[in-house]
Write a structure and sequence with these properties.
By secondary structure, this protein is mostly helical. Helix content is 81%, strand content 0%. It contains four helices and no strands. The protein has helices at residues 6-35, 41-45, 47-64, 68-89. The longest helix is centred in the N-terminal third of the chain and has 30 residues, at 6-35. The chain is elongated and about 55 Å long.
């Protein structure tokens, strides 16, 4: 989308940021739900699943013209905060 002013660019960026936050919140909820289906902390960490996800999002980043390295960093950040969240909040495991 071509913008006609810096203000319009910033409004669009703010709108996208809002959507990202909502999607991260939604994703986090599903990740927490997934923990309840797993039997151990090892299952929760699921290193093989994490690597599959990273590979998949790197490929999608290329398709959308985004840096695969940036997307991988974001996913690894999610993984690290997810593991911390499980350790602090998950009572089942």
């Amino acid at each position: 989308m071509k913008c006609n002013s810096l203000e319009e660019v910033r409004e669009n960026i703010d709108s996208i940021d809002d959507k990202i936050i909502k999607l991260v919140t939604e994703r986090s909820d599903y990740v927490r739900q997934a923990a309840y289906f797993k039997k151990s902390k090892t299952d929760v960490k699921a290193a093989d699943r994490v690597e599959k996800i990273i590979k998949k999002v790197r490929e999608k980043a290329k398709i959308y013209g985004c840096s695969p390295d940036v997307v991988e960093l974001i996913m690894k950040y999610y993984k690290n905060t997810r593991n911390f969240s499980y350790e602090m909040n998950c009572t089942k495991i």
